[in-house]
Write a structure and sequence with these properties.
By secondary structure, the protein is an alpha/beta fold. It has two domains: about 200 residues, Rossmann fold, CATH 3.40.50.150; about 70 residues, Helicase, Ruva Protein, domain 3, CATH 1.10.8. About 40% of the residues lie in helices and about 20% in strands. The strands form two sheets. It has a seven-stranded mixed β-sheet. The protein is elongated and about 70 Å long. The structure holds S-adenosylmethionine (SAM). S-adenosylmethionine binds next to strand 1, helix 3 and strand 3.
């Protein structure tokens, strides 16, 4: 396989020249040209021939080739039709690998899973994501509650740090809570911008999200829980009391103090100090008090 690996500067440039391909910045096209980083991504995904892999944005197929070597079934979704003939050539001898032309944000992923992954023992998403849509893609994967084992993705370093952040720091916010509600995050490695063609302006990181069997906290109404989290982070410099007053209405400010007291939470704290358990406690108490609905 390694003789044909395309994740080298030389092979990538050859393929691009052969097809007259020009990069579209608007589609987040930064292709990986480093074998070592690919090894780390693929190792983190813990694939074997009984498993399926979904790749989002295969580009010219650098990672897809490696997934095809490790997994039993691979499906790669690529939005740019100019890349489809390149992928067909690069993946020509990989019968268990399918390229789907489409926008992952518009695809019916439940249907795709039913069609493509019915015979596998587990599915992971493994991708070097287009950075302009990282969060919408990840939130779609998580909110649709797809039966996933891991999500191993290369994303912007700063976004990876926010996803993995613990309470108390400035990186911790509603994205950290949303990701940690569904997954256990682990930073795999930091990746310099020099391992891509063309080079992005930012550094990247590989993050591994291990999907939980059930969410980190038990809340009766998920949508309401996330609205409360958003409200607590609405203005980061404001206290919980102030942010939540905007959420429940000024006229219920006193009741709000009582609710926070019943949760044993100091109203002068800020959202960034709250654990998932504390967010859950507040959301349940507000709901029981019929506030903020
Ligand atoms: N996997 C390749 C690699 O590692 O070299 C390419 C990664 S590049 C960062 C992101 C890829 O995602 C590009 O091929 C781009 O065309 C594709 N892409 C961008 N938006 C997409 C979308 N909404 N749905 C599917 N693919 C998309």
């Amino acid at each position: 396989m390694s003789g044909h690996d395309i994740a080298t500067p030389k092979r990538t440039k050859e393929i691009i020249a052969k097809y007259g391909f020009s990069f579209k910045k608007s589609l987040g096209q930064n292709f990986l040209i480093d074998q070592n980083i690919l090894n780390k991504i693929v190792a983190a995904a813990e694939l074997d021939k009984s498993k399926g892999a979904l790749e989002i944005g295969p580009g010219i197929g650098a990672l897809t080739q490696r997934l095809a070597a490790e997994a039993g079934t691979v499906t790669a979704v690529e939005i740019d039709n100019r890349l489809i003939p390149i992928l067909e050539e690069v993946l020509a001898d990989q019968a268990h690998t399918t390229v789907v032309h489409g926008d992952v944000l518009k695809l019916d992923l439940k249907q795709l899973f039913a069609d493509r992954f019915k015979d596998v023992s587990g599915v992971s998403v493994v991708a070097n994501l287009p950075y302009y849509v990282t969060t919408p893609i990840l939130m779609k994967l998580l909110e649709e509650k797809l039966p996933l084992e891991y999500i191993v993705v290369m994303i912007q370093k700063e976004v990876a740090e926010r996803m993995a952040a613990k309470p108390g720091g400035k990186e911790y916010g509603s994205l950290s809570v949303a990701v940690q509600y569904y997954c256990v995050p682990q930073l795999v490695c930091i990746v310099p911008h020099t391992v891509f063609i063309p080079q992005p302006n930012v550094d990247s990181a590989v993050i591994k999200l291990s999907l939980r069997d059930k969410p980190a906290v038990d809340v009766p109404d998920e949508a309401f829980f996330f609205r409360v989290v958003q409200a607590c982070f609405a203005q980061r410099r404001k206290t919980l009391a102030n942010n939540l007053t905007a959420f429940v209405g000024k006229e219920r400010r006193e009741e709000l103090s009582a609710v926070l007291a019943s949760c044993d939470i100091d109203p002068i704290r800020r959202g960034e100090t709250l654990s998932l358990d504390e967010f859950a406690k507040i959301s349940i108490a507000l709901m029981e008090a019929g506030m903020g609905r």
